[in-house]
Each structure stands twice: as C-alpha cells, then as structure tokens.
Amino acid sequence: MGTTFDVAVIGAGIVGSAIARKLAGYELSVALLDARDDVGDGTSKANTAILHTGFDAKPGTLESRLVREGYHLLSDYAERTGIPVERTGALLVAWTGEELDALPALKEKAERNGYGKTRIVGRDEVYQQVPHLGEGALGGLTVPDESIICTWTTNLALATEAVLRGVTLLLNRRVQSVEDRGDRTALRTSGGEVNARWVVNAAGLGADVIDRLFGHDRFTVTPRRGELLVYDKLARPLVDRIILPVPTSRGKGVLISPTVYGNVLLGPTAEDLTDRTDTGTSEKGLEFLLGKGEKLMPDLLREEVTATYAGLRAASDHPDYLIEADAGRRYVLVGGIRSTGLTSGIAVGEHVAELIGDAGLALTPREDLPEPPHMPNLGEAYLRPYQDAARIAGDPAYGRVVCFCERVTAGEIRDTFRSPIPPAGLEGLRRRTRAMNGRCQGFFCGAEVGKLMDTKGGSACEQRHPSPEAQR
After folding, report:
1. Which residues pair with 50 in a beta bridge?
2. What confidence tens digit (pLDDT) does each residue in 286-335 have?
3. CA-based nearest residue to 15, from 318, 345, 285, 418
4. How confident is residue 459, by pLDDT bands cut at 50, 70 and 90?
5. C-alpha 102: how far from its chain's center?
6. Radius of gyration for the chain, computed over Cα atoms and rounded to the nearest angstrom
7. Verdict on whether the full-model pTM lies above 0.85
8. Collapsing DSSP states into helix, strand and coil, what is residue 389?
9. DSSP-assigned states of every residue in 44-58
10. Which residues form the signal peptide (predicted)?
C-alpha cells in the first residue's frame, strides 16, 4: 500500500479493535491488521464470556485498574450498541476449610479493588441460591455485579465502529518483519507492506514475537489451553448465576456459568502448551471437567452436551498487564492481556491513547464521529428476529427460520453480508448469528446455511419470498 498511516494496530481481537476504535476518534489515519481472515478469530472468540467486576484482581496492578474501569465502560457501551448482557451475579463457593478461611481475605481484596458489594454467606444460603449444587459446600462469597456477555458481539461491535470511524481493516496480514525507516515503520506482512508512523502491538498470543521484532525481550507468552463443555439449553434452569471456585495463583479454576445464548458452560481447564495453534479438545481435559462437574453439580452431568471447545489464553511470565510506549521507536506494546481483556478492552484503548499522546503523537479529537453501531441481538433474554412480528411483517425473511436449534433466520444471515465487516467463512457466520451452534451442530441446517453463505444471503431469500413487484 502507498499510504503511510499515522498508527497501525496489530491484532483485531477485542483489545486491538478497542484501541483502533479509540484512536480513530482523533484526527488520525489508522490501520487495523490481523493475521487471520476475520476479526476476533483468535483468543477473543473462545472464553467464558464473563463481564468481570475485577473483585479478585491483584490490588494496585494496572490490570486491576483497567478491569475496574473497563467493567463500567463496557457496560455502558453494551447498552448503547445492543451487546447482550445478563446481570446474573456470581457465587464463589468454598468446598474446604482452607477455602472457607480464605473468604474474608477475598472480601477485603474486593474492597481494596474498589468493589464493596461482596457478602460472605453460610452453607444454608449457598444451597438456597443454588439448590442443584453438589454436596459438601461449606459457604460462599456473593459478587452481585458479575455478569455474562456475548464476547463475539463485543469484538464485532468495536471493530465495526472502528471501521465506521474510518479505520482501514487489513485482514490476512501476518506481520513477518519490521524495518525502521526513520519517520515511519515498515511492517512486512503476508499480504504486503504496511507503513505507519506509530505501531501498537496488540497481537495477543503473538505479542512477544512482535515485541522481539522491535528489539525488545521483555516477556514470553505461553499458550494456556482452556477446554470447556457446553450443555444444552434444557440445562439452563439448573444455573441462574455464575458459580466460581476460590481462585488460586494458577487461575480462577473450573466454573459453571450460564451463557447469554441460553446454554450452560463447565470449564475451563488450564494446560500450558508450546503450540500456539492447538485449540483441539483432549480426552484428558474432558475427563478432568467431568470429574469436576460431578462434584460441583451432578445434576448438570445428566444433561446433554451440545458442544466442546477450547481456547488459548495468552498467559505471560509477567505478573501484570505489560503496556508500555517506546517513543524512540514510535511503538506501543500491549502484552500480557489475559482473559480479563474482554472486560478491560475499552479501558486499555483509553490508556493506550493517553500513553501515545504523552509520547508525542498529536491527538486532536474529531467532531464528526458517527453514532455507534447497533448490533444484531444474539441473546436469549432479548427479542430475537423470529419473535418480532412487526419485523417479520416488514420483511418475511426474518420469519424464515433456517437454523432451528438456535432460531436463526434467513434475514439475519443476509444482513451479515450487508454489514461493514461481513463474515469470511462459516465460522465467522456462526459468531455473527449463532447459526449451526446448536444441538445438531449444523447436521440439519448445514446445507441450507451453506447455500446462503454461497449466495451471500441474497438469492435464497428472494426465491422463498419474492418481492411484491415480482409476484405481480
């Protein structure tokens, strides 16, 4: 490309998209690069989708501050853009005397993190709140503001608003090398060269690799695989809130959580790997989860499993978020962003803008910003197109259900191809509509969805529902 951008952001996950969106609010030309063919196709797509209060973060860290700020920023953003959120609350369950004794310290930690609503409860109240919990719980800690959210829609909303603000989205651009050319940096990518005056590295699992291309050796990313079981919607009455274990230094452990799509999650595992592409599930991992589930909630294991999946978290040997600006190289590292990046992403964008401004990039706010996009609803707690009689009357394609497990309509699939960032393949279509994500996993609807994919959602709708002019 002949253009030299003011800023190039590497990584179109939640954090990178949030940074690009924020910087596009200034008089800057911004490029958003990703190695894959769609936004949110890496770490951001596969997590437990919890909007965290930050109650259990390490007090005084950058992560603690940005998660706390991000919770409020994302909550507000979700309301304005239609990202589905359910305020379920959470219950931290103590199963041993040691865990029970740890609850007062966790409550104090929450207060040090600025969250004062936790409450220690006894065994009887634990079972009153979660009647189907397994035997042996001794007490718990309530966290009333923990919530569930759609991580797919969050990523897509941030990337879409970035594009609407003028960001140039460059997919299939894996950064292979960098060259300092004095007033700019040349990024040599798998899709050609991209030039920028400033570069922001939000590459997730690859952030340490990119950092070394800029001459640093500050941290190492270890891919940590988290496997999860997804239970059928019939299991949802068993779980109306997030059920958390007492956290350890290894992580937050295995949880049970409802999803905004009406399912129930059990997981994740935490297995450090060397392969940064290994998102396959394992027999060992699934056996581990079933063993945990038998103790946590035996009734859940009697329900049907809809799907299994695994995500890779960017675990780091650095104990905190690593966000630093190198003014000499006009480069910002955004590394070590763990699963809390879903919640903190917008706050990270604000922080990066402040750093890059302090380092010398002129930030002049724009006065012509478009309104944020309103995203298609994927949540069961809100009105879906197949339920909306007025919408169907205006366009019958919203009444033609294609994926019956998830109640996805032809109109919704068509709309994805008319959006600013259309899906590049079936996996992207799944994340935008829920098509093929249900109990049959595409066995029933796969052929029809494939046809709509081939025609970009157009001709099939027209054939089934010809226009009034055609009917005459």
Report:
1. 148
2. 999 999 999 999 999 999 999 999 999 999 999 999 999 999 999 999 99
3. 345
4. low
5. 30
6. 23
7. yes
8. helix
9. GGSS--EE---TTSP
10. none
* Segment 324-379, tens digit of pLDDT: 999 999 999 999 998 999 999 999 999 999 999 999 999 999 999 999 999 999 99
Q: What backbone phi and psi angles, to 5 degrees, belong to 265?
A: -100, 145
Residue 164 scores a pLDDT above 80:
yes
Which pLDDT value is given to residue 471? 34
CATH 3.50.50.60 is the classification of domain 4-46+152-220+318-358: yes
Distance from C-alpha of 280 to C-alpha of 272, rounded to nearest angstrom? 13
Half-sphere exposure of 244 (CA within 13 A, CB side): 25
- At the second CATH level, the architecture of 86-147+222-316 is 2-Layer Sandwich (3.30)
Whole-angstrom Cα distance, residue 86 to residue 79? 11
What are the residue boundaries of the structural domains of the chain, listed by start? 4-46+152-220+318-358, 86-147+222-316, 385-471
Residues near 62 by beta carbon (within 8 Å), at least 6 away in sequence: 320, 321, 323, 351
Tokens 């949802």, residue located: 236
Q: E strands within 11-73?
A: 30-33, 50-51
Instruction: Provide the CB-side half-sphere exposure for 47 (13 A, CA).
Output: 29
pLDDT 10s digits, 221-231: 999 999 999 99
Look at residue 424 and tell me whether its pLDDT is greater than 60: yes
Q: Do domains 4-46+152-220+318-358 and 86-147+222-316 have the same CATH topology?
A: no
Four-point Cα dihedral 373, 378, 380, 385, nearest 10: 80
d(C-alpha 241, C-alpha 301), whole Å: 17
- Cα 404 → chain centroid: 25
Q: How many CA atoms lie within 13 A of 435 on its CB side?
A: 30
